[in-house]
Amino acid sequence: MKLSIVIVNYNVKYHLEQCIRSVQKASEGINADIWVVDNNSSDGSVDYLQAFFQDVHFISNKENVGFSRANNQAIRESESEYVLLLNPDTIVAEDTLKKCIDFLDAHPEVGATGVRMLNADGTFAPESRRGLPTPFTSFCKMTGLSALFPKSRIFGRYYMKYLNPDEANPVDILSGAFNMVRRKALDEVGLLDEEFFMYGEDIDLSYRLLLGGWQNYYLPYYILHYKGESTAKSSFRYVHVFYNAMLIFFNKHFGKRYLFLGYIIRLAVVIRALMDMMIRVLDRILPERKEVQIPYMRFDLRKTSVTDMLAALRNQQVDKKGKRAFLETISFDGTMLIRHNEVLALK
User: Fold this and answer.
1) Distance in angstroms (rounded) separating the CA atoms of residues 7 and 87
2) Parallel, antiparallel, or unpaired for β 178-182 and 82-86?
3) What's the farthest any 2 CA atoms get from each other in the chain?
4) Neighbouring C-beta atoms of residue 200, cutoff 10 Å
5) Is this model's pTM higher than 0.85 or not?
6) Pairing mode, if any, of strands 336-339 and 326-330?
7) Are 139 and 250 spatial neighbours (Cβ–Cβ below 8 Å)?
8) What is the pLDDT of residues 22-65, one digit of tens each?
9) Which of these, 315, 228, 245, 332, lies nearest to 68 by C-alpha position?
10) C-alpha 295: how far from its chain's center?
């Protein structure tokens, strides 16, 4: 087996259905299999999806075991040269998988590759490639220095915006939303650290690959990432899990070497988490703001290739206020209208 695609699902069956169909198209001509690990979804994901995808391997957990552990379950059962960790709220362009495999085949020193992720409005997702969140880099991110000097190789290293997104480059950190990893590299450095329930595991894996002598590469091939459809980002649990992951990573890799700076980083994380929680509280208690009409670009995936759709979304003309339209797709079988924030039945 050349490639195993591993997708962890939690209550996003319609986005996952669209993701699987795009992966099936993208893996034509590749000896590949697909693994879906369901973390005890309450929306009937497994029963719904198994009716459509007889060739997909499903693992159904009786509890939400977290992102890292769920991925590891499928990785251990699969037998392939490369493993793709893929989010369920993504759509993969037809040539992306093959180009990533070709790159890994040609560069045996590369342990993992990530790709150019597009947001639902066609803009470049900066987390497609990131610098190692050392204490100084994290400090720049927390204090806003990285936002003030985004192209600086000193202050702006977190998102590495000084790199051309149209070019392949070695980077420190790859996103877990799309991370194609060499099996040999995983065997050497280990699987995802299950101490991370959700978030941070991709940073940790990328860093361990670097420590193991492997390279991580960003490649300018496309996927769409709706972002966070499987996470309730308005919840307090999200705030706790997200910032706790940052602390786990810091303590694991830098805590002993940077004791004094560590206190500052920990304080910054706590303050940032409290600020985010306060914003969420205010959003709940303040009067609802008037809804703003959001423009959408509609594509029928039965008639339009993912590659053409992403190109049109990426190259769209902005309106007079500089706003961009968001993606709205008719699913591959024509039954669903899917946006980044809602799913509507057509039939």
Assistant:
1) 6
2) antiparallel
3) 60
4) 27
5) yes
6) antiparallel
7) no
8) 999 999 999 999 999 999 999 999 999 999 999 999 999 999 99
9) 245
10) 24
Residue 31 in tokens = 């000896």
Give every CB contact of residue 129 below 8 A, 6+ residues apart in sequence: 114, 159, 160, 163, 169, 171, 173, 174, 175, 218
The pLDDT-based confidence of 233 (bands split at 50, 70, 90) is: very low
| Residue of 187, 186, 5 lying closest to 87 (CA atoms) | 5
Residue 245 is predicted with a pLDDT of: 73
Of residues 341 and 221, the one with the higher pLDDT is 221
DSSP state string for 175-201: -TTEEEEEHHHHHHH-S--TT-SSSSH
Which pLDDT tens digit goes with each residue over 113-133? 999 999 999 999 999 999 998
b/e string for 147-171 if b means 16 or more Cβ within 10 A? eeeeeeeebbbbbbbebebeeeeeb
From CA 200, how far away is CA 90, in angstroms rounded? Answer: 19
pLDDT, average across residues 188-217: 94
Q: Whose CA is closest to 127, among 225, 7, 229? A: 225
For the chain, what are the domain ranges?
3-132+172-225, 236-285, 296-345
Q: What is 3-132+172-225's CATH number?
A: 3.90.550.10
CB burial of 248-266 (b: ≥16 within 10 Å; e: otherwise) equals bbbebbbbeebeebbeebe
Q: DSSP string spanning 285-343?
A: HSPPPPPPPPPEEEEETTTS-HHHHHHHHHTPPP-TTS--PEEEEE-TTSSEEEESS-E
Q: Count the helix, strand and coil residues of the chain and give each as a percent rounded to the nearest 5.
A: 35, 20, 40
Radius of gyration of the chain (CA): 20
CA atoms within 13 A on the CB side of 279: 9
Strand pairing class (296-300; 336-339): unpaired
Q: Identify the residue whose tokens are 């423009």.
A: 295
